Amino acid sequence: MSKKLIKNLIVVTSILGLTGAVQAATQKITAPKTTAPTTQANQNIEKEFDALGGNGVLLEKAQALNPEVRTTVVQNRIVDRTNRFELSGEYANSFGGDTYVRSGILGLSAQYHLSNHWSLGAKSGMAFNKLTAEGESLVKAAEADAAANPLSPTADVPAIDYPKQLTMGFVNFYPLYGKISWLGKGISHFDVYGQLGYGNISLKSGGSTAMSAGAGVGVWGNEHLTTRLEMTYLDYTAKYINGNDIKMGVTSASVQVGWLF
Q1: Which domains occur in the chain, in start order?
Q2: How do residues 14-29 score in pLDDT, each as one tens digit?
């Protein structure tokens, strides 16, 4: 065997031995062991994400990794209303109904939340009324005619039956839930809900049963502060001096601000 051949065999053997050593070393390398986070750690993380608008630190860290990408956080529901009581002040303004008068209602509402989807409540309010432009025109014409012809006035006086007080029970159903980002500075949570109500309305002519149907949006500023925008259709019977009973359909828009206990 020539010296050259022996030399080549030695080189090949060395290469094969080095390759085997590398493969053995590679097989010994294993991924670092990971342990499941503890329950306490999970709870801490959940609290970080559950803070209403309180994810500023997380957002800053995420944005620092890639400042060219706008990062936002959408949290899970954090205002749990189950078995909680809500008390609200309400201002409502009406549209439609009697042609000659417009009514507003200032009142209080209270409701108990059976769950995040259902609540039962009651509301009561005092009404304040004012004549419409058409009503004022007719009244002024009647006054002028009575002054000119005190013994035989001929101008018609408008018949008006206005509300004085409203008391109702209602049920709310909340099928839709979402979040609002306020210019990237904070997040508010909201529910869209439907409402059915039944009660009594006190009128100038007496009393009448009343039924209502409506819808609204509840915005939760934090665990306690509540704001509602609500549209309601109210149906009742008005009575006039001439003896006619007229079904009234009144639409009202209300703003409510309250506290969730």
Answers
A1: 3-65 (no CATH), 84-260 (2.40.160.20)
A2: 554 544 444 544 444 4
